[in-house]
Automatic annotation (TrEMBL):
PANTHER family: OXALATE-BINDING PROTEIN. This is Cupin domain-containing protein. Transmembrane segments: none annotated. One of its GO terms (molecular function) is metal ion binding. The keyword Metal-binding applies. Keywords: Metal-binding. It comes from the Archaea. It comes from Halobaculum saliterrae. The keyword Metal-binding applies. The lineage of its organism: Archaea, Methanobacteriati, Methanobacteriota, Stenosarchaea group, Halobacteria.
Amino acid sequence: MGYHLLDPEELDQWDDRPTDVRSLSVAAGYDYQDSKLGLRVYELAPGEQSGLSYHYHDDQVEAFYVLEGSLHVETPDQEYVVESDQVFFVDPGSPQRAFNPETADTSTRVLAIGAPSVDDAHPYEPTKDD
């Protein structure tokens, strides 16, 4: 059996992304690639996005649970506003960009879940028809 108790505040910045991101799953010993789950906490200042630009995944399902503030998610159809204590799911093949707008008054804190944890992200370029 394995159990892991983690405090995100005690973890170092996970990678070289320009925003504050802490990988809970890596800290618990799960591989970044080819793991059943990726779990990260993002602190997005006004004007920051979750790290990846507009993109989609082949196989990964993403879920963004907003802990504090509100998260904006741009899709080809519309822009969603996800408030604190709400969750936004993104199915594989569905383009999105998660961000805290520059006009925001406060930072946004988000728990991001990706399953499986695979590097299958592809850039998405919206067209005028989107």
